[in-house]
Specification:
Elements lengths: L9 H23 L5 H16 L6 H39 L5 H29 L3 H13 L3 H19 L4 H28 L1 H21 L1
Length: 225
């Protein structure tokens, strides 16, 4: 099922993709409500957005739920691991700020450095699990190496994923509006923007072939007109 509002043209393609992202975002939000399923719903969301990045037009609902069911167990385990690790880092950071010791600044810097690696891996691990269909340990390991080889794009993906928190911090008076936008389209839009790069990081040859095929199809459509 996809939400087709127009049939052809650049504007039609944009509006159709816009409506599909809204539908995808709603599916992600609803399936994340139990909280422990957040990892599986994020994997399912990336299944759809990475297909978009490869110029495919998947049936949103069917593709989402097939990926959700396939990734549920492993994604939930990874989610719980990262929740535990995140709570541990937050506790460490809080304790470091409370300690009245000479080495406190150095300790805080070390913890913040670990937080960077944590966020880098977290930003990649669910797309990695979805795309490569590995085990839990293998997915975390591959996400680490890919994020470390990703250069400035790792920072971009991290910032995009943290963008709602930055906006809420900067504009607290718009807390409700920011959350509404994020839960109606923001998460899917961010995943799509990240997927445009991730498909090239994961499989550059396939991404290039998809770009070339899409360009050929555009030329054919122009020639027919």
């Amino acid at each position: 099922m996809t939400m087709k509002v127009l049939q052809e043209g650049i504007l039609a393609d944009f509006l159709n993709r816009f409506m599909d992202l809204i539908l995808l975002n709603v599916l992600w939000f609803v399936c994340s409500l139990p909280v422990f399923t957040l990892g599986a719903s994020t994997c399912a969301m990336y299944e759809v957005t990475m297909r978009y990045a490869l110029h495919e037009n998947p049936a949103v609902v069917r593709t989402f739920f097939l990926a959700f069911r396939r990734c549920l167990k492993k994604a939930t385990v990874i989610f719980l691991i990262f929740v535990g690790a995140g709570l541990f880092l937050v506790l460490d950071l809080w304790c470091a700020f409370q300690w009245e010791v000479q080495m406190r600044f150095l300790i805080v810097v070390v913890i913040l450095a670990v937080c960077y690696f944590y966020l880098a891996v977290l930003s990649h691990v669910f797309p990695v699990l979805m795309y490569f269909d590995m085990g839990v340990r293998e997915s975390i390991r591959k996400a680490y190496f890919l994020s470390m080889s990703n250069g400035v794009f790792t920072v971009f993906i991290m910032v995009m994923n943290l963008l709602p928190f930055f906006l809420i911090f900067l504009f607290p008076y718009y807390f409700g509006q920011i959350l509404f936008f994020y839960f109606t389209m923001g998460a899917g839009g961010i995943a799509f923007l990240c997927s445009l790069h991730l498909v090239r990081l994961f499989d550059f040859k396939r991404a290039e072939e998809a770009d070339q095929l899409e360009e050929e199809q555009r030329r054919l459509r122009k020639a027919e007109k």
